[in-house]
Amino acid sequence: MKILLDHCVPRPLRSHFAGHVVHTAYERWWSAFKNGALLSAAEADGYAVLVTIDQNLPYQQNFADRQIGVLILDTASNRMADLVPLMPFALSALDTIMPGQVAKVELPAIP
What we know:
The chain is an alpha/beta fold and 111 residues long. The chain is 23% helix and 19% strand.
């Protein structure tokens, strides 16, 4: 699967997406794009999923006609120490995410 990491996701996280083609918005020269333009550019270039930590994205964009899925990593920060524990859940979500769908992954609550 072809995955794009949003501006706010640290580059080293790409190594946790084994078996996928992963690029960053920065290396695609899309770092100045706002969310709508970034999604359009990613779709046009064949990306299946945008990975972000931007919790507001679903409220800012209409995904009904989008050909790209969005995976939101729900975490306290964009530090690797906070993101890496989410990766098993993120990889599982990638197995089922569909175009135009927004999926959020978070750590399970501790009872």
